[in-house]
């Protein structure tokens, strides 16, 4: 199989405890991420991107359709690093994912060091979380995922709290990780509402109102997807302004 | 425009924690904004308008928060009065937890190299002496701790931090001094019935002993209140300062390791407690110490950014605003703990499999990419 993740005809409802009041947030979503790809999921706020992510991560149940994740392990990193960092210092935070494995200290140390250097945080392992910048915190959250050698990264708007410089810094880091993976097996699903990030994508999907309304299989098709997104935003703006 | 604009607003306000900024950051932000713009120009051909609008909205927001949290801008000087409450808020915003409860790895001192278990034993020893010692031993202890702080803690923060703790102790001591013997218990007079026995005036001032030093009616300073105030000062100083010395020079991992893998080992042998879970709890509480600090700063910053003119408000309104903001801080903290619990689940946590607390110190030799 070439796919790392494939969803076919996925329906997900939220709210109302699954009763009549619950509302379909994802409607017939078809999306696949190929191995070794950085696949971007573009969509406006509230279009259902996080819902898709959480469903893939197994945090939400789906009512209908098929969801196949061909690789493991899968790790998710969310929007706000302050909410995802668990332990008080950089080294301990990265090592947290390894608490379920009996490893010897040297091995743990080596893995933590590697994960930190993968995200350009080498040498900071003793630092307290409170002394890190926003960009460093988000890289740290990424390192916490990488230490477990995941095959699929689910990254939900991880640049939305960062300034432009850090935004592209983190994006380039992820791109380099995928391109530099020795097995070529590492893939990532990158969720965003900023179309300028699509220049780094291997492929992309456009989500609107819980549906996939456009797909780009390569960089060549990216421009038309971005234009489609712009039109959706433009239409929405006209609706909002009288 | 409105749609994406509000989206951004929500994103920023929910990410309150990342907004904790000192005045230094203003410069960086200005620079970032410049990059931002050049980026925008470059991306104009392909990137859609709403994203740009959204970002412009964001940078405008940044302007507001920086100008209000650094110093009162000349244009808004009238509106921004620095009365008592604003001053306190400003202090909270610019304060950091760093020299108080957060581990400071650099510059490394003798204390950094000392074994964490030894440091914990010493700290406990200080507490015991402070709690049970005589007034002389307490004062000696305080002098010792103060001298050790100046000698061993890095000069970059030791003096400022020591003065902070001293100030706090003196305030406590001062109020103890005033209050300890202020309320006199009305005793029934029990004078002898024989008037001859009352002629004991000759004994007065035979020695220099005085119980009451100062007596202004309501304010009365006696031997007892002096003793009590000295004890309170010494106890508080010894407790806070020895803890600070321990916390700033020992990483949370080392501290946790010392008491879960050494002092609490008997509990593990006797199977009374799950020591692995204790390790996690201890580490989590260190994380929350930092979060509470940041959340208080956010609340203070929110108040400053709103330019509330405290002087014009009635007391009830002040209390109302205060409670609203504290409620907000507590709610934020609860929601963050919820999120952190969720993120523990995402990273595969369940109490059975997470039985190998890896508390390794990853000392690296530089190489910051
Ligand atoms: N916990 C929830 N309960 C009910 N509805 C929700 C919940 N979270 C999100 N939604 C709804 O699902 C839709 C998609 O939200 P989300 O997946 O967070 O969008 P995005 O990540 O694209 O901004 C929104 O309309 C939102 O109102
Ligand atoms: Mg989202």
Automatic annotation (TrEMBL), chain A:
Domain ABC transporter per the UniProt entry, residue ranges: 5-234
Metal-binding is among the record's keywords: no
Record GO cellular component, one term: chloroplast envelope
Keywords on record: ATP-binding, Nucleotide-binding, Transport
InterPro entries to which the protein is assigned, alphabetical: AAA+_ATPase, ABC_transporter-like_ATP-bd, ABC_transporter-like_CS, ABC_transpr_CbiO/EcfA_su, Molybdenum_import_ModC, P-loop_NTPase
Domain of life of the source: Eukaryota
PROSITE patterns (UniProt xref): ABC_TRANSPORTER_1 (PS00211), ABC_TRANSPORTER_2 (PS50893)
UniProt GO molecular function: ATP binding; ATP hydrolysis activity
Stored Pfam families: ABC_tran
Biological process terms in GO annotation: transmembrane transport
SMART domains referenced in this protein's UniProt entry, alphabetically: AAA
Protein name: ABC transporter
Annotated source species: Chloropicon roscoffensis
Automatic annotation (TrEMBL), chain B:
Regions of compositional bias (Basic residues) in chain numbering: 32-43
Biased composition (Basic and acidic residues): 52-63
Organism of this sequence: Chloropicon roscoffensis
Membrane-topology descriptor: Multi-pass membrane protein
Keywords: Membrane, Transmembrane, Transmembrane helix
Cell compartments where the protein resides: Membrane
Protein's name in the database: Cobalt transport protein
Pfam families: CbiQ (PF02361)
Biased composition (Low complexity): 65-77
């Amino acid at each position: 199989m070439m796919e790392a993740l494939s969803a076919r005809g996925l329906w997900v409802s939220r709210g109302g405890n699954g009763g009549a009041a619950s509302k379909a947030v994802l409607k017939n979503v078809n999306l696949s991420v190929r191995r070794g790809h950085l696949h971007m999921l573009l969509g406006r706020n509230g279009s259902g991107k996080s819902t898709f992510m959480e469903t893939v991560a197994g945090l939400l149940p789906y009512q209908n359709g098929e969801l196949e994740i061909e690789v493991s392990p899968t790790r998710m990193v969310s929007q706000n690093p302050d909410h995802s960092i668990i332990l008080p210092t950089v080294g301990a935070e990265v090592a947290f994912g390894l608490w379920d494995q009996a490893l010897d200290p040297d091995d743990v140390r080596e893995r933590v060091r590697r994960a930190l250097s993968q995200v350009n945080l080498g040498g900071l392992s003793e630092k307290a979380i409170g002394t890190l910048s926003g960009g460093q915190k988000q890289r740290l959250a990424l390192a916490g995922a990488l230490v477990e050698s995941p095959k699929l990264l689910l990254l939900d708007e991880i640049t939305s709290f960062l300034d432009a410089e850090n935004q592209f810094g983190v994006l380039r880091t992820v791109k380099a990780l995928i391109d530099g993976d020795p097995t070529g097996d590492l893939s990532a699903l990158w969720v965003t509402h900023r179309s300028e990030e699509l220049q780094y994508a291997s492929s992309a999907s456009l989500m609107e109102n819980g549906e996939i309304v456009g797909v780009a299989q390569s960089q060549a098709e990216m421009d038309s997807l971005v234009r489609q997104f712009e039109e959706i935003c433009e239409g929405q703006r006209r609706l909002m302004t009288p | 425009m409105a749609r994406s604009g509000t989206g951004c607003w929500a994103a920023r306000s929910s990410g309150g924690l990342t907004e904790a900024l000192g005045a230094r950051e203003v410069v960086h932000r200005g620079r970032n904004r410049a990059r931002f713009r050049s980026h925008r120009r470059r991306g104009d051909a392909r990137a859609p308008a709403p994203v740009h609008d959204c970002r412009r909205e964001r940078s405008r927001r940044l302007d507001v928060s920086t100008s209000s949290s650094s110093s009162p801008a000349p244009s808004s000087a009238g509106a921004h009065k620095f009365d008592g409450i604003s001053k306190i808020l400003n202090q909270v915003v610019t304060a950091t937890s760093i020299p108080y409860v957060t581990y400071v790895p650099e510059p490394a001192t003798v204390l950094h190299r000392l074994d964490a278990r030894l440091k914990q034993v010493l700290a406990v020893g200080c507490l015991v002496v402070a709690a049970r010692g005589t007034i002389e031993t307490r004062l000696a202890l305080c002098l010792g701790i103060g001298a050790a702080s100046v000698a061993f803690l890095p000069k970059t923060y030791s003096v400022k931090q020591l003065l902070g703790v001293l100030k706090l102790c003196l305030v406590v001591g001062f109020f103890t001094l005033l209050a300890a013997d202020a309320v006199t218990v009305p005793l029934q007079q029990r004078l002898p019935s024989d008037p001859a026995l009352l002629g004991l005036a000759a004994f007065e001032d035979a020695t220099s002993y005085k119980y009451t030093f100062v007596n202004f009616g309501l304010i009365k300073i006696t031997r007892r209140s002096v003793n009590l105030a000295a004890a309170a000062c010494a106890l508080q100083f010894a407790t806070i300062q020895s803890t600070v010395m321990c916390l700033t020079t020992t990483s949370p991992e080392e501290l946790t390791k010392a008491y879960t893998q050494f002092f609490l080992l008997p509990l593990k042998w006797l199977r009374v407690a799950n020591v692995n879970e204790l390790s996690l709890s201890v580490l989590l509480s260190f994380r929350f110490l930092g979060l509470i600090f940041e959340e208080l700063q956010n609340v203070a910053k929110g108040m400053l950014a709103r330019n509330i003119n405290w002087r014009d408000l009635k007391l009830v309104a002040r209390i109302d605003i205060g409670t609203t903001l504290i409620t907000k801080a507590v709610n934020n903290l609860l929601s963050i703990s919820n999120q952190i619990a969720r993120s523990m689940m995402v990273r595969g946590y369940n109490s059975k499999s997470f039985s190998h607390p890896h508390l390794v110190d990853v000392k690296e030799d530089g190489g910051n990419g």
